[in-house]
Amino acid sequence: MSHESVWYSRPRTYGKGSRACRVCTHKAGLIRKYGLNICRQCFREKSADIGFVKHR
């Protein structure tokens, strides 16, 4: 078996490998709260469109 055929051979159903940003498909820095599933970079870009307001 070659390395390419084994690399993603098992299904990712749980853990960090199973989740990705719904905007850019990035896997790190994911905000899962409220079912957002958006990485933090995309959240900063889209937060006003979603309806989040920054206040102190």
Automatic annotation (TrEMBL):
<dbReference type="InterPro" id="IPR043140">
    <property type="entry name" value="Ribosomal_uS14_sf"/>
</dbReference>
<dbReference type="GO" id="GO:0022627">
    <property type="term" value="C:cytosolic small ribosomal subunit"/>
</dbReference>
<dbReference type="InterPro" id="IPR018271">
    <property type="entry name" value="Ribosomal_uS14_CS"/>
</dbReference>
<dbReference type="GO" id="GO:0002181">
    <property type="term" value="P:cytoplasmic translation"/>
</dbReference>
<dbReference type="GO" id="GO:0003735">
    <property type="term" value="F:structural constituent of ribosome"/>
</dbReference>
<protein>
    <submittedName>
        <fullName>Ribosomal protein S14</fullName>
    </submittedName>
</protein>
<dbReference type="InterPro" id="IPR039744">
    <property type="entry name" value="RIbosomal_uS14_euk_arc"/>
</dbReference>
<keyword id="KW-0689">Ribosomal protein</keyword>
<comment type="similarity">
    <text>Belongs to the universal ribosomal protein uS14 family.</text>
</comment>
<dbReference type="InterPro" id="IPR001209">
    <property type="entry name" value="Ribosomal_uS14"/>
</dbReference>
<dbReference type="Pfam" id="PF00253">
    <property type="entry name" value="Ribosomal_S14"/>
</dbReference>
<keyword id="KW-0687">Ribonucleoprotein</keyword>
<keyword id="KW-0862">Zinc</keyword>
<dbReference type="GO" id="GO:0008270">
    <property type="term" value="F:zinc ion binding"/>
</dbReference>
